[in-house]
Amino acid sequence: MAYVATRGGERAIEQSQRLFREAMGDISADRIQEIRDAMPYLIDRVMGEASLYDEDLAALALAQAGGELYEAILLLRAWRTTQPRLALAAPVTQESLFTHRRISAAFKDIPGGQVLGPTLDYAHRILATEVLSGDTYVPTPVDPAEKPAPAQQPSVAAWQAENGLLTLPQADAVQGNDIPDVTREPLLFPAKRAHTLQSLARAETGGVLALGYAAQRGYGQAHPTVNELRLAEAEVVVTHPRGTRFSAGRVKVSQAEVVNKKGEQLELGFAATMGWNEVKVIAAATLDLNSDGAPKGSATEEEFFLYHTEGVESSGFCIHFKLPHYVTFQSSLDAMRDAKAKKAAKATTPEPAE
Q1: How far apart are CA 5 and CA 19, in angstroms?
Q2: Helices 40-50 and 69-81: crossing angle, nearest 10°?
Q3: Could you please report the per-residue DSSP string of 125-144?
Q4: What is the pLDDT of residues 23-54, one digit of tens each?
Q5: CB neighbours of 53 closer than 8 A, spacing ≥ 6?
Q6: Which of 143, 158, 269, 294 is spaced 20 to 30 A from 130 at the CA atom?
Q7: What are the domain boundaries of the chain?
């Protein structure tokens, strides 16, 4: 399909879309279920960056987009804007999370103990090529735990605060619809704390990683230590119009606290997102930690990293360069030709006699 914007018009655009859909093939409920079951961490990333928790819709968006993440996230965000807000969930505390994985790099022993949970951190990276020859890869069953870790785990930062190692931030008294919402309000600087955390929660993972890594390598003001990393499920507790509180289910969440020594105390950086995405929350918490007092225009300045990790907007801006820019480009060419003509005319004009 040739890309010729000056002719073909509406029919050419329609056919280009058909060509893409044809390459993707039929999309069925079975295919959606297969994507959801086979790639749970990819589903989590799409849900987190779209700020909409629905595994089936995330799998559908991936199928429609052929796995193109930015397009899938845009599809899910667009769907989100059409849905009514039925209720507000109660605030979730760290201590109430149903915890699957919780580790700290700052201490060997923490209250509740280290819980490794599901991870490939300590695995050999060996590709199971035998599958391509027809064999089936069957994972080794998990041994039953002699003493399972408690489902609820205390906060490491709260324990540190009790021991005078850091000062916990003041709890926000704003509740319900009064909480600033970055999806309904413009992001202005200096940003509201709620807007900062919400923006980091739905930020593009690769962008957050790049800037967080830059800060960790010395382009920031503080080098972090992971105080606590947690993968968990949060209970969604809502209040019925009649006043009854009930659980509407659970959603997977990730959260990270990072710390850095500053004077006689530790300073704290925090990030959380829907779904399980450890790399993102560690990098995002690093940016949060480094944002205070960051130089203007640096990778850790709040305005810089919040704008440039907004995946839908930044990818959309790059994609728009594919659209026709004939008028502005031809104007530039005309200016170049005019400059060349003037230069040539000047070169051929004889110098006046003395």
Answers
A1: 17
A2: 50
A3: ----GGGGGT----PPPPPP
A4: 888 899 999 999 999 999 999 999 999 999 99
A5: 47, 251, 274, 275
A6: 143
A7: 11-80, 94-118+148-315
